[in-house]
Specification:
Layout (H helix, E strand, L loop, with lengths): L2 H14 L8 H9 L3 E2 L1 E7 L2 E7 L3 E4 L4 E7 L5 H6 L2 E6 L5 H8 L11 E3 L5 E3 L4 E13 L2 E13 L5 E4 L2 E4 L6
Antiparallel strand pairs: 1-11, 2-3, 2-6, 4-5, 5-10, 6-9, 7-8, 9-10, 11-12
């Protein structure tokens, strides 16, 4: 039995000990589809190959030390490379980068072939035109349910003065200017 299968079974047993009826998968997805989230591309170098995927699960964990986290399904095509990676970049997409988000969410294609990215001196790719980016070292991969929560220590960054790309209910949005 693999470690992740063991951890998932342990979690299922722990949850079964509670007498509360959980949400169905459809009910749970309905809630989080309504939650607006920023859109990011997580990217890394796996040997000679670049790997990247769209993520709306990026969260700030701690400012001291500077830690962030994101989740990825264990069945994702990007997981094997991410499970070996030591460093990653997280590019927070800007308004107007819907095509980039869609490309990095599409399976079975070379997500980097269309260009629009620049390699850092350390080799990891950063998405051109992103509103901000971070480069970090992976410090922990925690199996949770059928996914992994990946914790990253931020090491380098860049920012631009542009609006973010936002995703809600399967649609991309731009922030509206606040009215006084």
């Amino acid at each position: 039995m693999s470690t992740s299968t063991h951890d998932l079974r342990h979690l299922e047993r722990a949850l079964a000990d509670h007498d509360e009826t959980p949400l169905s998968a459809d009910e749970y997805k309905q809630v989080f589809r309504r939650h607006a989230a920023g859109v990011a591309v997580v990217a890394l170098r796996d040997g000679d190959r670049l790997v990247g995927f769209t993520a709306t699960s990026v969260i700030s964990v701690s400012a001291v030390p500077p830690l962030l986290a994101f989740s990825l399904a264990s069945g994702s095509s990007s997981w094997p490379a991410l499970s070996r990676a030591q460093t990653v970049t997280v590019s927070f997409l800007a308004a107007g980068q819907e095509d980039v988000s869609t490309r990095f969410a599409t399976s079975g294609i070379d997500r980097f072939a269309a260009g629009g990215w620049t390699a850092l001196p350390t080799g990891e790719p950063v998405i051109d035109g992103a509103q901000a980016w971070l480069r970090g070292r992976i410090v922990q991969r925690t199996p949770v349910g059928d996914s992994y929560l990946v914790s990253v220590r931020a090491l380098a960054h860049g920012v631009a003065d542009v609006d973010p790309l936002v995703y809600r209910d399967r649609v991309y949005h731009r922030l509206a200017a606040a009215t006084p």
